[in-house]
Amino acid sequence: MIDRLIDKIEKTGNPSVVGLDPVYEMIPANIRKEMLDSYGKTPKAVAEMFIAFNKGLIGALCDIAPAVKPQIAMYEKYGLEGVRAYIETASYAKEKGMVVIGDLKRGDIATTAAAYAAHIGGVTVEGEAFDLWNEDAVTLNPYMGFDGIEPFIKPCNDLDKGIFVLVKTSNPSSADVQDIEAPGGPLFERVAALVAEWGKLAMGGKGYSRVGAVVGATYKEQGEKLRKMMPSTFFLVPGYGAQGGKGSDIKGFFGPDGRGCIVNSSRGIIAAYKNDRKYSDADFADAARNAALKMKGDIAG
Amino acid sequence: MIDRLIDKIEKTGNPSVVGLDPVYEMIPANIRKEMLDSYGKTPKAVAEMFIAFNKGLIGALCDIAPAVKPQIAMYEKYGLEGVRAYIETASYAKEKGMVVIGDLKRGDIATTAAAYAAHIGGVTVEGEAFDLWNEDAVTLNPYMGFDGIEPFIKPCNDLDKGIFVLVKTSNPSSADVQDIEAPGGPLFERVAALVAEWGKLAMGGKGYSRVGAVVGATYKEQGEKLRKMMPSTFFLVPGYGAQGGKGSDIKGFFGPDGRGCIVNSSRGIIAAYKNDRKYSDADFADAARNAALKMKGDIAG
Fold first, then answer.
1. pTM for this model (two decimals)
2. For residue A245, what is the enclosing H or E element?
3. B142 to chain A: which residues are within 8 Å by CB?
């Protein structure tokens, strides 16, 4: 997965990932009306809105962006129908050749972590194999330690999948826990050392591990330091755009090979049509494409 | 929720919660055969197995155990059908009067955490309200800090729901991150102080907060210390039984009022029929009831 991601980034010249994090208010009025008319004021209507919206976005972005990152929370919000929309979104993005990073932030122990590992490892029922989630990689939470990570290592290697472990998240209160001072540095640096160590268990062929790290764009100095601490770890970088991160902030998150980073933007791309009066609701996909190209330029610069 | 939970614990005289964490191998052969015959070797068949198994367990346990804790990973493993089984399980337990603690361990930031909060807060579509997950409380991960917790506080108070935040988990490698030494003590004690502080925002009427903590039975001294540090925090205690925790280990996890704790057992109860040759597959629910009564006695002692 990490080699495929690097290839896709180089082919598109665009180290960014589109966060498919729809919220109800973002859905263009015509799609909203169509689904409410068809399904009533129901979670199913919202699920169909999300699917239609995401398919429009994926169609407009699949040749210029290497990957999508649907945030499962936005879908879980709408219960079972929402989860269905998540799975259909991942499936469609995969069909269009995009790398799919499921933003799950799961973290649990032993047999439970092994169950979550089905997200990338698939499942068998009496010998019949199923890949039910269509994800190439997922995000994980490190609070439980290696027990929560270990079951993912095998599918990373056997099926060429990937994981990104939270190290330093982009939100303001990430400091509450992640910045607690421990001997040798703040907690997130200790976690970074663990993630780098775990990464050795699943190296790809281009110098980067299938075990990546989540490092927020909003913490410039920390990201630069982490890059030096974990040279073989690919960074998934949230916090660009709506949360305040800029292209110039994340220059030092890339390795000396110009690789090592994929930057996420969600609202800034998928809701771009809302930020410029020249766009109508029907232009949402074009607006997203233009915003994605602008972001590509910003990061390249 | 926390007051209702305390009431249910006192009514049943049983401070324990049944972990509804089914795995395929646990399913009695008759149920397995029935569902494979009806649905083939498919995730849907497994979902139907889990529903039938859980309904049998809930029916046998609902008058002697106050609560169930389905672990969503076990269900997510089987994709959308699995998630449906989770929701139907929660719904049935609720119908039978049990408190439902969804073991999600979600943790995310800002708008994303707000989306996850729909698990307990419900969702509206154009003014129509839905409670899609049927949970009274959920478990959360603190790694993101207060941003990940805050959106849950309002439904805790407005809808009398609850959360349990991971403090010290029961697994061996919980030490990797949670025991990292920080000024004033290991990380999990720092997190405990935060959780106690957050708990003040959602106090129930019986001296305990709707913001609880997860504290593993496998760490006796730590649990006793945490009880002193956080007297108004209700503990959800995993690690009893199959993971090695005993009733005598957790005596000090209870407060001086004899309250403050609910102890989880999963395999030890739901797969009890596998541990004693006197039981046949058809006895799985009876075996679970007997195991639950035995556990109740062990904790009371």
1. 0.95
2. none
3. 143, 176-177
